[in-house]
Amino acid sequence: MKRLSQQLVFEGVYTEKSRRVERLAWQMRVTLREDEPLVRFDTLLDWQGEQTKIYASFTPAFDHGGDIFTEVPFGAMKRGSAEGVEMLGYCDDWQSIGFAGVEGDGMSVAVLKGGLPGANVRNGDLRIALLRAMRTQMPDFDSLYRGTADRGEHRAAFALACAPAGFADGRYSERSAAYGVLGHTELPAGGGAGIADASLLPFFPVVPPGLRLSAVKRAEDGSGIVIRLWESEGKPAVFKPDGGAKLLHCDTLERPTAGAAVSEYAFRPFEIATFRVVFSDI
């Protein structure tokens, strides 16, 4: 399956001794793909400096009130400014599992951060920390964290997503789970149960109300992608993925239980189902 894409490349070098930045060289690739509800960022950093944080900063085009939403188990938590907050020696950032974002005016935007450290909102901007730099509010304890900050060459991959809804129903946990597995993982090309482009995410944009995407992972045998969904409202529901994907029903050990992949699957009330994702047109 061939998909149109647009890629922008930004790069530069920054030095500022007064801010303990010996040298920061960076290259950021920004990728947009047709029919994909994400903007992807892939950043290469060569960082030489002391305990100084490096952020990717985004300015939302709507008023969000300065609060940030961070992913916690089973949902999202609304938090205020993290300025002055200390959590396990990590200052001025909130920790989250897979995403952090803001909402307002009937819109929401979040960074699917793929394991990157903390996030905060500062002067209206949503900021994601790209490298770790542990600091405390008590200078006497800073020595405990010397040697723990990231230095040298690093890669930070993340994505920006939005929805015409807030975090209560924007399905960001499902988007984050899908991106965490597929977002920047090279998977083998091929037909059948394989997947030719790890960026193809035909699952979360089309999961209907009542169904919950509870797992997205590489198959144990390395031959493709496995997803698991469950019906949460006690009503029949139909799941039909986009992008030329089909579903091969499996048991919990990822062994096929059906002879052929199908283009849609009808869920019984409260049913849990596991599938291999098959792309028939590649």
Describe this entry's structure for a reader.
The chain is mostly beta strands and about 280 residues long. It folds into two domains: about 5-165, Golgi alpha-mannosidase II, domain 4 (Beta-galactosidase, Chain A, domain 5, Distorted Sandwich); about 185-280, Immunoglobulin-like, CATH 2.60.40.2220. Helix content is about 5%, strand content about 45%. It has one helix and 19 strands. Strands 1-2-3-13-10-9-5-6 form an eight-stranded antiparallel β-sheet, with helices on one face. Strands 14-15-19-17 form a four-stranded antiparallel β-sheet. A hairpin with a 6-residue loop joins strand 14 (about 210-220) and strand 15. Residues about 180-205 have low confidence and may be disordered.
What's the arrangement of secondary structure elements?
Blueprint: E1 5-16, E2 21-33, E3 39-49, E4 55-58, E5 68-72, E6 75-79, E7 86-87, E8 90-91, E9 99-104, E10 107-112, E11 119-122, E12 125-129, E13 152-163, H1 172-182, E14 211-218, E15 225-231, E16 237-239, E17 245-250, E18 265-267, E19 272-279
Antiparallel strand pairs: 1-2, 2-3, 3-13, 4-12, 5-6, 5-9, 7-8, 9-10, 10-13, 11-12, 14-15, 15-19, 16-18, 17-19
